């Protein structure tokens, strides 16, 4: 499993063998079963997580007990409640496994140490933060400027394999539409 992450790193930056060994030395391997939580709402997020295999989601629950999916994470993606991880405050969201999942975890202390001591690791994290920010801006813009049909088509294009792995109600939640609306949109797309 750690070999997968080593390949991920070397494809995205120049790491020495010693740096890779330093990263691996502080890596925690964790397995989650489907529906098992990595983080509950109200807990402090103590780890940054990399998905080796499986499928995760980060979501928040509103005052009416409706879940709103913030993001998904599948193989070679990162997941965490970044706000809680960085400021040490209780998480506003929860992170759970949608499939049996293998993760690699780093504590906040080790994460900060790796960023400080390994320039390529810090550069990778800066790049990931920038890409995440850009994706969030695009998603926000889509939510306020595109129709549900346009959001659906963009989702299918961006994440073609998700429909086989994620329940329809969760995709509807991610898109900010009701399951009924998503069913209508899919029916129109399949017939058109």
Automatic annotation (TrEMBL):
Keywords: Plasmid
InterPro entries per record: cNMP-bd_dom, cNMP-bd_dom_sf, RmlC-like_jellyroll
Keyword ATP-binding among record annotations: no
CDD domains from the UniProt entry: CAP_ED
Top-level taxonomic group: Bacteria
Ranges for domain Cyclic nucleotide-binding: 30-111
Keyword flag NADP: no
Protein name: Crp/Fnr family transcriptional regulator
Organism: Hymenobacter volaticus
